[in-house]
From TrEMBL:
<feature type="transmembrane region" description="Helical">
    <location>
        <begin position="384"/>
        <end position="404"/>
    </location>
</feature>
<keyword id="KW-0812">Transmembrane</keyword>
<feature type="transmembrane region" description="Helical">
    <location>
        <begin position="26"/>
        <end position="46"/>
    </location>
</feature>
<protein>
    <recommendedName>
        <fullName>DUF112 domain-containing protein</fullName>
    </recommendedName>
</protein>
<feature type="transmembrane region" description="Helical">
    <location>
        <begin position="135"/>
        <end position="158"/>
    </location>
</feature>
<feature type="transmembrane region" description="Helical">
    <location>
        <begin position="106"/>
        <end position="128"/>
    </location>
</feature>
<dbReference type="Pfam" id="PF01970">
    <property type="entry name" value="TctA"/>
</dbReference>
<feature type="domain" description="DUF112">
    <location>
        <begin position="18"/>
        <end position="436"/>
    </location>
</feature>
<feature type="transmembrane region" description="Helical">
    <location>
        <begin position="411"/>
        <end position="440"/>
    </location>
</feature>
<feature type="transmembrane region" description="Helical">
    <location>
        <begin position="327"/>
        <end position="347"/>
    </location>
</feature>
<feature type="transmembrane region" description="Helical">
    <location>
        <begin position="460"/>
        <end position="484"/>
    </location>
</feature>
<feature type="transmembrane region" description="Helical">
    <location>
        <begin position="58"/>
        <end position="79"/>
    </location>
</feature>
<keyword id="KW-0472">Membrane</keyword>
<feature type="transmembrane region" description="Helical">
    <location>
        <begin position="359"/>
        <end position="378"/>
    </location>
</feature>
<dbReference type="InterPro" id="IPR002823">
    <property type="entry name" value="DUF112_TM"/>
</dbReference>
<keyword id="KW-1133">Transmembrane helix</keyword>
<feature type="transmembrane region" description="Helical">
    <location>
        <begin position="254"/>
        <end position="278"/>
    </location>
</feature>
């Protein structure tokens, strides 16, 4: 208990409170800017921490870390552009809700789900970090391969109505993920002797092109200006307690999925969001409304991607293994400030560990206040005339695409992706499977090839791994359930 009091004393002083509040504000706004994201936000803040004591410096970075993930939902809802890759699934129901004039309510659902998911994962981190870190160790390449295969079932769920076109779109995403240098041999693939393509494609230009630029092109070609002129309440509308109560199980389930996937190094919040979205669509009584502005879809995406933040810190703090790109930056920051993550951290620095837990908890609570206040500013975007809003979206999108790697090539990639997205819209193809295929393509290939190396090319040895068999069984169940339910309906 004394360690907890000392930890709270490190936060509740002038430097600590300033770091906490400014970190949440900065993280939210940077997260809402398309193309910047969590890693960029942390990298921007890192030099500022050199002038701070280790306590406030860590509080600042943790606040930026959790709030930047939430910030991505704001632009995803308002202008159909995921501010961060973690919010890629949020556009599926957030933007349609904004088009219906319910942007204020969409922001309320997203903020509440984000806060719940973040706090849920912090509690998991506080209670179960050491034992859960041991579970994460058991996930080698073969086990992660099974998890990714299970994640790919989301393609079928977001493509319901035209699964064939969804699979074609996913294959396009998988192909794009293979462009660039082979991670094992170093040889270049599908670069057409063009040097800029040897680094492959980054997810941000693809996201920006497929979702944002294709939307602008669609409105330009069709003359449809309704999306940007939707009459919307200005501000922030938080759902009632009864509305939350009726959705408590989807909220808990999405948070648990995000926390679990966050623990696994290298899997990431994008995967968690789509896995949770697919799970929500399977289990929700409102599954027919998914993709049309359904709150259950927003809850599934936002609760899970924010729950990843606490989950990813489990291997980071307990083992010194980064759970994602953001925690890799955090490990560097901790080492700079004289803190060495690993198995001895909980024993050697109990006060500092408790301070990190409390900082994460208060940062997630503060998101609720900052989200409600910033919504007053962001929802005014919807009142801007389309002739002004659309060029602004294009400008922000292209700047975001360039910022990721400071590459002009990424601007052209975003533009080309926008053209492809427009053609897909006209052809009746879903856009989400492209992103799912692209995001999962590289880890799928790398896990499969490592697994084959470990088993000397014998795939059947994979099934000797209990975790692999378990996830493959879940995949089979997830794919067979729709078939069984459709057969039952036909019999009825």
């Amino acid at each position: 208990m004394q360690d907890l009091y000392l930890a709270l004393a490190l936060i509740f002083n002038v430097q600590g409170i300033t770091a906490l509040v400014s970190g949440v504000v900065i993280g939210t706004f940077v997260g809402a800017m398309p193309g910047l994201g969590t890693v960029v936000a942390l990298a921007m803040m890192l030099p500022l921490t050199f002038a701070l004591d280790s306590g406030p410096a860590i509080v600042l970075l943790l606040s930026v870390y959790v709030s930047s993930v939430y910030g991505g939902s704001i632009s995803a809802i308002l202008i159909n552009v995921p501010g961060t890759p973690q919010s890629a699934a949020t556009v599926l129901d957030g933007y349609p809700m904004a088009q219906q004039g319910k942007a204020d309510r969409a922001l309320g659902w997203a903020t509440g789900a984000s806060v719940f998911g973040g706090i849920f994962s912090v509690i998991i981190l506080m209670v179960a970090a050491p034992p859960l870190s041991q579970v994460a160790i058991k996930f080698g390449s073969i086990e992660i391969l099974a998890l990714i295969i299970f994640s790919m079932t989301t393609i079928a769920w977001v493509s319901q109505g035209n699964t064939v076109k969804g699979l074609i779109a996913a294959l396009l995403g998988l192909f794009l993920s293979t462009v660039g240098q082979d991670a094992f041999t170093g040889s270049s693939r599908f670069d057409f002797d063009y040097f800029e393509l040897t680094a492959g494609f980054h997810v941000v230009p693809i996201l920006i092109g497929v979702f944002a630029l294709s939307e602008v092109l669609h409105q330009t070609c069709t003359g449809d200006k309704t999306a940007s002129l939707v009459p919307s309440k200005i501000g922030f509308s938080f759902p009632s307690w009864q509305e939350w109560k009726s959705r408590k199980m989807p909220l808990i389930r999405a948070s648990a999925i995000g926390s679990f996937i966050g623990i696994l190094p290298g899997v990431g919040a994008v995967t968690a969001a789509f896995v949770s979205y697919a799970d929500g669509k399977r289990s929700s009584p409102n599954r027919e409304n998914f993709g049309k502005g359904e709150p259950d879809g927003l809850i599934a995406s936002e609760a899970s991607n924010n729950a990843v933040t606490g989950g990813a810190l489990v291997p980071t703090l307990a083992l010194g293994i980064p759970g994602d790109g953001g925690t890799a930056v955090l490990i560097g920051a901790l080492i700079i400030h004289g803190v060495t993550p690993g198995v001895r951290l909980y024993v050697d620095e109990p006060v500092l560990v408790n301070m990190m837990f409390m900082a994460l908890l208060f940062a997630n609570l503060l998101i609720l206040l900052v989200g409600a206040l910033s919504a007053q500013l962001f929802t005014r975007v919807l009142r801007i005339p389309a002739s002004i809003l659309m060029p602004m979206v294009v400008m922000l999108s292209l700047v975001g695409a360039y910022t990721v790697r400071s590459s002009v090539m990424d601007i052209f990639i975003a533009i080309i992706a926008g053209g492809i997205g427009l053609l897909m819209r006209y052809g009746g193809y879903q856009l989400a499977p492209v992103v799912i295929g692209f995001v999962l393509g590289k880890p799928f290939e790398e896990s499969l090839r490592r697994g084959l190396l470990l088993s000397d090319g014998n795939v059947w040895l994979f099934f000797q791994k209990p975790i692999f068999t378990f996830f493959i069984g879940l995949t089979a169940i997830a794919l067979l359930l729709p078939l069984v339910s459709s057969l039952r309906k036909r019999k009825r």
